[in-house]
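Sequence, please.
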């Protein structure tokens, strides 16, 4: 049994993927080829964002977003304490202090009610992660940001395809960033990512930064980096975007079926906040004894994963930024979260087996 069955998806779209790859190979445009422009257009149409800039990966997308907003030394950015390290480490790489804020215990996303207490004169942005497949409460977070004149960066590495109050993830904040890592809802066959914005000036700056700060050939207007999206990955993503809306529907159907089958089990199933849809980048449970639970599933041939066992403020690389404020929900969720197999092509028979094993193990 596969945790995420990428081969099954490939079998379904194989001819289209190979066609796109061959067109790139025949073109000879392997870096910044026309497929990149084509993908950016498709993604803006899908999300409703005004601009999309394809970049090398989701981590670089976050770094480029911070650079485009001129966030640097002695500044602070607010981040959730429970997420993947890139959300905070890209700020730290720029000399910026990540300020850890606890999560909503139901959605596992940044809790808007705790943000204002963390704002200082040095705060320049709020990074809101759409963890596991649903957006953070971006409407509430945007209101707080507007009140304090802060930028909002959406980390949509896991929520691409989700809606928040009828608006697509990647269309609602100052800059949004996503990842096309193969296991993401929209995944390439290698690294890839994108930045989205509705601001013309920021779009131009992001485009400069991804090619070493270059506005015209060999003229470097600002400092930048090599943040380009490979043309072959753009072609693969174009093929995948043709089936992505259907896959979002399948993810919703499978996630809802999991919820119905596990609603009376001795665990906490995913909660979808009002106004949100969920793309279930992960289908995650809260269980009492995670190690025992994982061992029992493994013995029955059911793979699991833990995202993320150590919250950011307890990571050695980020410990110096932690001010010892209580972050109880982040610490509790990190100890008890565990994810089950989840992908758009998970059939009902396999799902039934997983659920049976889960119930018996609980």
């Amino acid at each position: 049994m596969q945790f995420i069955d990428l081969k099954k998806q490939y079998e379904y779209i194989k001819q289209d993927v190979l066609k796109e790859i061959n067109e790139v190979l025949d073109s000879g445009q392997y870096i910044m080829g026309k497929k990149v422009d084509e993908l950016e257009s498709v993604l803006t149409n899908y999300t409703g964002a005004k601009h999309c800039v394809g970049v090398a990966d989701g981590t670089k997308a976050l770094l480029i977003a911070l650079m485009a907003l001129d966030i640097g030394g002695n500044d602070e950015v607010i981040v959730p304490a429970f997420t993947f390290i890139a959300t905070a480490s890209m700020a730290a790489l720029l000399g910026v202090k990540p300020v850890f804020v606890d999560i909503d215990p139901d959605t596992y996303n940044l809790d808007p009610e705790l943000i204002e207490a963390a704002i200082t004169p040095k705060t320049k942005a709020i990074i809101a992660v759409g963890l596991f497949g649903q957006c953070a409460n971006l409407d509430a977070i945007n209101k707080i940001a507007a009140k304090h004149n802060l930028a909002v960066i959406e980390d949509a590495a896991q929520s691409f395809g989700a809606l928040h109050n009828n608006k697509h993830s990647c269309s609602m904040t100052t800059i949004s960033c996503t990842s096309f890592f193969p296991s993401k809802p929209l995944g390439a066959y290698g690294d890839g990512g994108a930045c989205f914005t509705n601001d013309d000036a920021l779009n131009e700056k992001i485009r400069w930064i991804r090619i070493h700060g270059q506005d015209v050939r060999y003229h470097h207007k600002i400092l930048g980096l090599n943040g380009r999206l490979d043309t072959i990955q753009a072609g693969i993503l174009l093929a995948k975007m043709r089936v992505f809306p259907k896959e979002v529907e399948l993810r919703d159907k499978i996630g809802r079926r999991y919820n119905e089958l596990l609603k009376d089990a001795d665990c906490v199933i995913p909660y979808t906040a009002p106004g949100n849809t969920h793309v279930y980048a992960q289908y995650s449970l809260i269980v009492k004894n995670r190690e025992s639970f994982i061992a029992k599933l493994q013995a029955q041939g059911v793979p699991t994963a833990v995202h993320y066992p150590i919250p950011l403020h307890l990571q050695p690389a980020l410990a110096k930024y932690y001010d010892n404020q209580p972050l109880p929900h982040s610490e509790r969720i990190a100890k008890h979260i565990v994810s089950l197999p989840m992908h758009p092509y998970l059939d009902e028979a396999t799902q039934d087996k997983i659920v049976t094993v889960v119930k018996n193990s609980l």
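The chain has a mean pLDDT of 98.
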